[in-house]
Amino acid sequence: MRLGLVAKLDDERAIKLANDVFTYCTSLGLDLLVDERLLSIVGWDARGFSLSSPSVDYLVVVGGDGTVLATLQSLGDKVIPLITIKSGKRGFLCDVSPEGFKEAFNRFLNGDFFIRDYMRLESSVGGVKFPYALNEYVLTTSGLFRSKVAHFKVFKVFRGVQELVYDVLSDGFIISTTTGSTAYNLSVGGPLVDPDLDAFVITPLAPLTLGVRSLVLSPTSEVYVEVVKESYDVDVIADGNYVGRIKPGEVLIVRRAAKPARFVRFGREGFNRVFQRLTYEF
Q1: CB-CB neighbours of 262 under 10 Å
Q2: Which residues constitute the domain of residue 264?
């Protein structure tokens, strides 16, 4: 069994914690490789690997949600279980506290853990695919048009039947998963979805009309987002990273990804955990 270690590269606290993890895992006799980008910074006596072609069975990620999401995007189609160790105040996706990593690895070696798959989204425009999103795709007016509203038509497609669900002027839309319902979606007033339920959540950003609210759709649906021809260019952001642009007249197609995000978990997930992570001090 081979593990790979990834850490937030611009955070001294995360790098120090990653060093502690590296030292402890080595003492346990684990075969641990280190992300070559991290290795170039720290200079440890270790073998390196690349996220573009990782020859590992598990990945240990030290950082916050941004580090986890960036790691998943770097992996692309490769599904490798992540052991996530939080470095910082908050990390919805991180299962292990900085103080608890030794206990977690002891449990890992004893097989006292479970694997949890999380639904991801995939999307395309005109046959051109964008990277997967675990949290959300955000569509928002871009560049010179950032202060403008765009005209969107959003369709639910289920079993070949297309249904118009939004025809609205707005700053943009968020299309999120259940996991992403705790992120940007929640910040703009969208619903918090049961962690045991797979779903799409569609939330308009600052719509110029009354009575427009979020929708929760079946994960077997597809979502078509049309930027109407007389509108403006729209940026597509996947899990916080810019991935492309939609021109007026083009349609973004969003569906459930065939490849999930896979995590090693040591404790039950539920609303209590979500609420605890939503109430923290800066």
Answers
A1: 17
A2: 2-119+260-278
